[in-house]
Amino acid sequence: MAKLICSSCQKSYSENDPRWRCDCGGVLDIQFTPEFDVDKLRRRPFTMWRYREAIPVLHDENIISFYEGFTPLIDIDMGGISVKAKMDHLFPSGSYKDRGASVLISKVKELGIRHVVEDSSGNAGAAIAAYCARAQIECDIYVPSLASPEKLRQIESMGARLHKVSGSRQDAAEAVLHGGEAVYYASHSWNPYFLHGTKTLAYELCEQLDWRAPDRLIVPVGNGTLLLGAFIGFTELLTAAVIDKMPKLIAVQTANCAPCAEAFHQGQDDIAVIKDRPTLAEGIAVARPVRGSQIIKAVRRTDGDFLTVTENEIKEWLHHLYYRGFYIEPTSAVVFAALSGYQKIDKKETVVTVMTGHGLKTQKHA
Ligand SMILES: *Cc1c(COP(=O)(O)O)cnc(C)c1O
Ligand SMILES: [Zn+2]
Q: Which of 145, 173, 192 is a domain's end point?
């Protein structure tokens, strides 16, 4: 049986308790022992649900899926170092957030919930809207009014109620808490089931590398759902002795919004209070990530690093990637911008990254 555990006060709750945070206000994690039988999954369809026994949804009939996952892992030459990129912009809703949404909305269905709210810069909202539409669960999505218009259109088209909040991404997060008392908050930043979907990135990567761990994983970080999911996934694989080392996690933020990177470099455990400025990388424009201290801790534990990139570097690398045929969004370009100036990588290392979002969603902004 899985349990929900508070990361602040350690209080525990049943997995059948429809709650998204602890009574004390702390974030919840899932205590759960995943099972692995690498031989058994060889014969299964190539979707993220092939790791069925590692996903804390109890009954198969609750699974909400588009047969997503197992995206291609492609080699990209970055001038001397070779990088492998997971093409997660090819997911059904156009971003890796479908990994989290599939598991979270499956659990929502399992809990018998019929109506959810979520706040997002766009991609998480689009993913939650798509999975709710497939499950026929009602949903309300709060977004900053300046988010990419394509993402807003996508959310509305799938039948979600769209609430535009003027101001920052943080203002949208606060608005949802006022609107959301009576319904379930299906938040990608708070809800731990989302992370048990994003963790399948780590499983797929290791399987595609013939059950070896990469040396480094470099990802963009806003709320940290990709990074923390990867940390959970690699930790589980290591505990199950499927892999024999922990990859170093390299987190990238923009110089205009770097609450975790600043704290990390100052040796702090909690996020820095920052005055954020707008950034092209709207997917990671998160000034106060609720799991900020978990993100910093995960990076430290893996002997990883935090890097930041400027707006000009993002633009430059976005266009380099376009010219190589990769139509991704600016938020996905930040890792390539960061890698281009990063000296600590040995040529022999296996370095992996993720193309997190599709370029078709940000044409008006990029
Ligand atoms: C959400 C998102 C990210 C980063 O995810 P966090 O969970 O906020 O760290 C990166 N790229 C894109 C395109 C996203 O939508
Ligand atoms: Zn608590």
A: 192
